[in-house]
Specification:
By secondary structure, the protein is of the alpha+beta class. Among the domains are: about 5-315, Beta-galactosidase, Chain A, domain 5, CATH 2.70.98.10; about 370-530, Glutathione S-transferase Yfyf (Class Pi), Chain A, domain 2 (Up-down Bundle). The protein is built from 18 helices and 38 strands. The strands form twelve sheets. A nine-stranded antiparallel beta sheet has the order 8-9-10-11-19-15-14-13-17. Helix 9 runs antiparallel to helix 11. Residues about 1-15 have low confidence and may be disordered.
């Protein structure tokens, strides 16, 4: 390495002197189960500029290739090479898409193929080392060792800003790969267009089909110095119809390009230590929209200015809570969790408010910010309730975005799992109704509540969607009609309860009665003989072949009967009674956390390893996230307290394997934040939060209404996990729940901690 680059590469993951962002470690969760990305972005930014270390095809011998799962975020910590830097990524998802507009600097012989990790010299990829890599909020850097290039990244909301420091070369190149993507396969790229406007600027778009069936990303790209030449290559198979564009040599300095698999190169002469900068702006609407976004957000070439502005946004985001914690490790976990809980959903509109809707028409967002990428099966549980406290105006805009989705939907349904003007229909339930109802009932969403109720009801009555017709007729989803029949029934029942609560709030008694009745449908799949939720056939009989530990083919999604049998968050007391009373219910909970699973259990689990499981409690997947709090309805709520603290210590750590499951767009992190504070939304749609055991010594939540809610743990310690008493605004708390209004009205809650297990329920 030359001395110039060595002087630049002062790498640290936590180098800031500012109070909050110095504790953020973007590498937490980048190992296999974390599926996060370590690159540069601003809170909820449309651009997530991050290295892609490799990928494999989604397809192998005509079937799904399981190895592709490990590349969900584009970056794997264990990989030895970087292919390039792309501008869109999901955070912590167990399925994927995106990886758009990949850029890679190189020197020497022009190589237009990425090559393979074992022989990076045969392509434009490069070896790298974690010793020469660093990430901070809105900043990433790495030394590309093969060409001795220092790559640095920062962003605004819609623009990625690259800075490449080269050695002296007459043959420097910047590759633009428009074929690369995450979860790629042969036919994923539908079409690509590029127009070179002058010697430093180009525009274009890329259309793909994948998790999002019809997704188009428009971009503009500009360089800080003119390129001396450029060229392209189209890697698609030879078409029968070739047209008459062949009259031109399109591979050299040709400005009007189109094809399915385009790669381009831009060539430069550079001096030693010269910085070549690149800006890439994205738009959901048009190429001109991308140019306008760039001009509005980063009209200059001051990299440090953009970096600082983005970090100031992060400092503001992370300053919504001020905490005192036991250790440096806990500070890193806490503020990294806040960081993860502000990566998605992402802004999905241009600076002028225009965006492409689900109907593929251009819409104007008026009075709100439009968002995309709603992983609702995960995030309804804790992430959106978390936003209702720390970021309610942003969550209100997210609900408005869901309502716009509904208005544009040909099926008249709220989103299931939506991104980039598509619904990919992933996972079960219709959990947008939970988010909508929770936001209205907590006073967060100020839009038309009656219209919102209508959208919820119409979504829940969509008979064509995943067994809802049979569910409405029979009171359950039959397993001979649907492979995830039990989990669908349970999740529909909870969502129906949310609709009932909203209808009750609005005085719509007929709707309340209908959906309150539907919310009890969980009872129809409970087998009292076995003591578990169980698949039921169309004829009303329980399916005979059934394994309570197996996760596949048993009627559940991302869970087994042991975990899902506790999924009645809206009526846990009724569940306890149905399961035979407190004694059996408590034994069930105890067994869940203490049993030992054989290795065979993991044979068919793609997304969960032993590290994400405690006993048979699957914290690495979301359906059981409320379960540790269920001891609160027994005579031994101290078991909730010790279990919560055990999970906090067991499932969250510093480092690249610090998350023991998928973060799933902030849900794992939101669980950590709530539980560290000492309470959790067991059943969103209710104003109540259930008490756990706070990890913090003290926390101040700075609310949008200019009030402050303070949490204090007196005598909190590693062994002092039990609550002796609780005071809310100086008065003893009656029971083990606090209300949303208790928080947003401001005030103080005090937990008095002890190492001794209380003999009776805490007061």
């Amino acid at each position: 390495m030359n001395k110039f680059l060595l002087g630049l590469l002062l790498v640290s993951y936590t180098v800031f002197s500012q109070n909050k962002i110095k504790y953020v470690d973007p590498f937490i969760g980048t190992a296999k189960m974390g599926h996060t990305f370590p690159g540069a972005t601003v809170p909820f930014g449309a651009v997530q500029l991050s290295p892609d270390t490799d990928t494999v095809s989604y397809e192998l011998n005509g079937k799904y290739n399981p190895e592709v799962y490990t590349f969900c975020a584009g970056y794997r910590y264990q990989d030895p090479t970087i292919v390039g830097f792309s501008h869109t990524h999901f955070s912590g998802t167990g399925h994927s898409d995106l990886g758009d507009i990949l850029v890679m600097p190189t020197t020497g012989k022009l190589l237009m193929n990425p090559g393979i990790a074992d022989k990076p010299e045969n392509g434009f990829r490069s070896k790298f080392s974690h010793k020469n890599e660093g990430a901070e909020p809105n900043y990433y850097k790495v030394l590309l060792e093969d060409d001795n290039i220092l790559a640095e990244m920062t962003t605004s909301t819609r623009v990625g800003f690259h800075r490449y420091t080269f050695p002296k070369k007459d043959d420097a190149h910047i590759i633009l790969d428009l074929t690369s993507g995450i979860y790629n396969y042969e036919d994923k790229n539908v079409w690509t267009v590029v127009r070179v406007l002058n010697d430093s600027t180009l525009t274009g778009y890329r259309q793909t089909t994948g998790w999002a069936r019809t997704r188009t990303v428009y971009f503009s790209m500009t360089f800080s110095k003119p390129f001396k030449s450029y060229g392209s290559k189209n890697y698609e198979n030879q078409q029968v119809y070739r047209g008459f564009w062949r009259k031109f040599n399109q591979q050299e300095n040709f400005p009007d390009l189109a094809g399915r698999k385009l790669r381009m190169h831009f060539d430069f002469d550079v001096e030693a230590g010269e910085k070549v900068m690149v800006k890439v702006a994205l738009s959901p609407v048009s190429m001109s929209g991308a140019l306008a976004n760039m001009n509005a957000e980063i009209s200059h070439w001051d990299f440090e200015k953009t970096r600082t502005e983005g970090q100031n946004l992060w400092e503001k985001e992370l300053s919504k809570m001020e905490v005192k914690l036991p250790s440096e490790k806990d500070y890193v976990n806490f503020y990294t969790a806040m960081y993860h809980a502000a990566l998605m959903p992402t802004v999905y509109m241009d600076v002028d408010g225009k965006y492409k809707g689900l109907d593929h028409e251009i819409h104007q967002a008026s009075g709100f910010t439009n968002y995309s990428s709603f992983s609702l099966w995960d995030t309804f549980r804790a992430f959106h309730p978390y936003l209702n406290i720390v970021n309610p105006s942003r969550n209100a805009d997210m609900v408005k975005s869901m309502m716009e989705h509904y208005d544009q939907s040909a099926l008249k349904m709220l989103p299931i799992w939506s991104h980039y003007a598509n619904d990919n229909w992933c996972m079960s339930g219709y959990h947008s109704v939970s988010v909508v109802a929770d936001a209205i009932l907590k006073g967060v969403y100020k839009g038309d509540a009656n219209e919102a109720l209508e959208a919820c009801v119409n979504t829940a009555r969509q008979r064509k969607y995943e067994g809802i017709g049979e569910y409405m007729d029979l009171g359950y989803v039959p397993s001979d009609k649907n492979s995830t029949s039990v989990s669908n029934t349970l999740e529909y029942a909870y969502d129906d309860w949310c609709i009932a609560q909203l209808a009750k709030y609005l005085g719509k008694n007929d709707i309340f009665e209908e959906f309150h009745k539907r919310s009890e449908n969980w009872k129809n799949v409970y087998d009292s003989r076995l003591g578990f939720m169980r698949p039921k056939l169309l004829d009303g009989n329980f399916r005979q072949k059934f394994d309570v530990l197996e996760t596949h083919g048993q009627g559940f999604i991302e869970g087994n009967a042991w975990n899902y049998s506790l999924y009645v968050p809206h009526n846990p007391e009724g569940l306890m009674k149905t399961m035979g009373g407190e004694a059996r219910f408590s034994r069930y909970l105890d067994s869940l956390f203490t049993m030992h699973l054989l290795d065979d259990f993991f044979a068919n689990t793609e997304d969960i390893t032993r590290e994400g499981i405690i006993g048979n409690y699957v914290h690495g997947n979301e359906p059981a996230h409320h379960v540790a709090y269920l001891y609160n309805i027994t005579s031994k709520p101290w078991k909730t307290q010790e279990t919560i603290r055990m999970i906090l210590n067991n499932q969250y750590a510093n480092g690249p394997d610090g998350l023991r499951g998928n973060d799933d767009c902030g849900q794992m992190s939101a669980w950590y934040l709530f539980s560290s504070l000492g309470f959790y939304p067991v059943s969103p749609g209710s104003e109540e939060y259930w008490i756990g055991s706070p990890l913090i010594h003290e926390a101040k939540i700075y609310l949008e209404n200019d009030k402050t809610f303070t949490i204090e743990s007196v005598n909190q310690g590693e062994k002092n996990v039990y609550i002796e008493k609780i005071l809310l605004n100086g008065k003893p708390l009656d029971g083990l729940k606090i209300k949303h209004s208790d928080i947003v009205n401001g005030g103080k809650i005090q937990f008095f901690m002890t190492p001794k297990k209380p003999k009776q329920k805490t007061k």
